[in-house]
Amino acid sequence: VPLLEEGRDDAFLRRVETEKFKNFEAFLTRFIINQDHIQRLEQGGRIWNFPRLRLSVATLNSCEQITHRPNETRGRLSAQQVESFLTHWGKGPDRLNILALHHNPSGVPRQSIEGWGTYINEKKTLSKEQIECILDDAWGFQDRERLQHLVRQCHPQLLLYGHQHASMEHDLWRWNTDGHTPLLGAGSLGVVEKNMPKDFPNACQLIEITVAGKMRVLPLEYDPRARVADKADPGRFIPRGTDRDHPFRTLCLPEG
Question: Are 180 and 119 in contact (CB under 8 A)?
Fold first, then answer.
């Protein structure tokens, strides 16, 4: 008990981190046998380098400070992890840089949270405390300014995130007058329909990048009624809008 009541006790947090990511670490070890291209950072961050593709993907751990305790349920990004990342990554003048993390740094729309709140309360399977924890977590990310500062220093071409199980138009974070980083959410690909709130279909975003340095994003939403050729049952992902709604735009690529 004293360990839990001493605020952000270091020993407690270290134990939480070990237990929380134990299964994930075991999965990575089994799935990726040769990890020579992976650089480990502080607090669970990683850099995945693919020299042949001239590609570097940095995965930041926005869940590092999340526990079951009040006020510790939202996504965070510690200064220790960010500084470790900045030391090892840099701008990379001859590669495509992609930044990825779990939480939505732009903030989850109120409509999405209210929809999840209504859905969870109607189920009547969780306690009031559990519901409050889930909805507080849904509000997402607390270190937006720290991440924006990181983006302004490193100039990633894309920032990808999960956590938000709803489709939305992507945001742009500017480095300066000439460059910016698009923020793109993953959506939900395979959630069973009965476990989704009404009016929140499975959705994803298809990113197209051309050799000419152009990019467009096609939002796809699952329509259970859409017919599929040569299939017995209906249901498939269909584009939202038309090609005119999603034009190719210039991607801020590094020189070379």
Answer: no
Ramachandran area for residue 208 (φ above 0: left; ψ -120 to 50: alpha; else beta): beta
Q: Measured between alpha carbons, how far is 46 from 202 in angstroms, rounded to an integer?
A: 28
pLDDT digits (tens, 9 = 90+) for 106-126: 766 666 677 767 777 777 777
Reading the block at residue 47, the tokens are 């850099």
Computed from CA positions of residues 82, 133, 20, 205, in that sequence, does the dihedral angle turn out positive or negative? negative
- The pTM of the full predicted model, rounded to 2 decimals, is 0.79
Residue closest to 134 by CA, chosen among 142, 143, 126? 126
Write out pLDDT tens, residues 132-174: 766 766 666 788 899 999 999 988 999 998 866 555 556 888 8
Beta carbons of 58 and 98 less than 8 angstroms apart: yes
